[in-house]
Design a protein that fits this description.
Blueprint: H1 2-13, E1 18-26, H2 38-44, E2 48-55, E3 59-65, H3 79-96, E4 100-106, E5 110-117, H4 120-132, H5 142-152, E6 158-163, H6 171-180, E7 182-189, E8 201-205, E9 212-216, H7 220-243, E10 247-252, H8 258-273
Parallel strand pairs: 3-4, 3-6, 6-7, 7-10
Antiparallel strand pairs: 1-2, 4-5, 8-9
Helix pairs in contact: 1-3, 1-8, 3-4, 5-6
């Protein structure tokens, strides 16, 4: 999948900045006068030039939600397994682009940080951590993960936040992170969260809080209210992401996701051309 679908699309939209400012130094005869930093020259009283270095590689950070709500699946795949597969596809696409890949696993706190590096062996470690890491906590709080990213990555990087976004109050940290980094949200869902079967009385338990309650799924009115609440939550989330300037890809457990990512890559490519 990486070779046939993702790598070429990824490479077309995620590229290094080319020349990046490094420092200023004194002007020497023969230097290109177009590189003179006139502000520094005016302050110092003699000419200085800006020095640039070529920056073609990117740093890609994967922020993966490992809270208990991802141990859910109404079909053949759990949400956590789809999150791991997408993290793997993005990580392998990145190293084919000669980019560095890092990882932050979070619940309601940062559970694991893997510093960005290159190479297939490193990416296999990243994927292993996503698949097999045992979280200490069950809840969801995106704010510590976003704040941690901004602390450990002072320079702009490409960031994918992968999870179901069952959280509130992260808007400010999201906006700050979106201004500092190239941020994309990958929303992991399950159709059963909006399309409830008529299964009669069902004992539910909140995977994150442990709270139990009885729901009459045999009632058409109850099913409509559940669907209405989930639809409203999704629309509010999408509006929050749009307001922060965050690109979004929505995928569902047990369903193909290639088409959604291709649409995302093509949208990014059109935006770059514009």
């Amino acid at each position: 999948m990486v070779s046939d679908v993702f790598a070429g699309q990824y490479h077309s939209v995620f590229k290094g900045q080319g020349m990046e400012f490094q420092e200023v130094r004194e002007y020497y005869p023969g230097d290109d006068i177009r590189s003179i930093d006139w502000n520094v020259t005016a302050r110092a009283g003699h000419p200085f030039i800006k020095k640039f270095t070529e920056e073609r590689e990117l740093t890609v950070m994967l922020l993966v939600d490992i809270s208990a709500s991802h141990v859910f699946g109404g079909t053949t795949q759990l949400k956590k397994d789809l999150a791991a597969e997408i993290a793997a596809v993005l990580a392998f696409s990145a190293i084919q682009n000669s980019d560095r890949v890092g990882l932050i696993l979070f619940s309601d706190e940062v559970e694991l940080y893997v510093a960005p590096r290159k190479g297939a062996a490193h990416v296999l470690r990243v994927i292993r951590e996503v698949l097999y890491f045992k979280p200490k906590r069950k809840g969801t709080n995106m704010t510590p993960a976003l704040d941690f990213l901004n602390h450990v990555m002072p320079r702009k990087c490409v960031t994918f936040v992968i999870g179901d976004f069952l959280d509130q109050g992260f808007e400010r940290s999201l906006s700050i992170t979106a201004r500092r980094h190239d941020l994309t949200s990958v929303i992991i869902g399950d159709r059963r969260e909006r399309e409830w079967p008529a299964a009669g009385l069902v004992q539910w338990q909140d995977a994150e809080t442990g709270r139990s309650f009885l729901v009459d799924t045999g009632s058409a009115a109850t099913r409509r209210e559940l669907t209405k609440a989930q639809t409203a939550r999704r629309e509010n989330l999408l509006q929050t992401l749009r307001s922060a300037g965050v690109d979004t890809v929505e995928v569902y457990a047990g369903e193909p996701y290639e088409r959604e990512f291709i649409k995302f890559f093509r949208m990014r490519e059109r935006r770059l051309r514009v």
